[in-house]
Write a structure and sequence with these properties.
Elements (H helix, E strand, L loop, with lengths): L8 E4 L4 E5 L2 E6 L3 E5 L2 E7 L9 E10 L3 E10 L2 E9 L14 E3 L6 E4 L2 E2 L1 E2 L8 E2 L17
Antiparallel strand pairs: 1-4, 2-3, 2-10, 4-5, 5-9, 6-7, 7-8, 8-9, 10-11, 12-13
Amino acid sequence: MWDYPRPAIAEPTDRHILIRHRGATIADTMGAWRTLETSHPPTYYLPPDGIAMDLLVPNPQRSLCEWKGQARYWDVKIDGEMLEAVAWSYPDPTPAFRPIAGFIAFYPDPFDECLVDGEQVVPQPGGFYGGWITSREAGPFKGVPGSRFW
């Protein structure tokens, strides 16, 4: 993670991204983009055609990223269970992140399975960041106690 760039970048990836919860497939794609930033594991942005969009519900929450712009959030509703603000997207990102416009990223923590090439991911610590940690990434990662100003 420490050789990842700052400022952050976005790049296409052909890794197989799969998200399942309560037996439902929420996302399944090999057409994702990932964002990379120093001290962060990758965050994967998935194309809408690889997502079961009928399970997503717009959430009014918004946030601002210094690199990507304003994010909007999504809830996921499965069998009456509402997982609130568990995904986000950038409808109109900054120019450097135009390729992820309309793509959706998911926090891995609330879901039963979030897989990268068949490997279960570990959520980035701290609850705020949405990085996906696999055996390919080496920490320490931003989000652990004491890392606020890294």
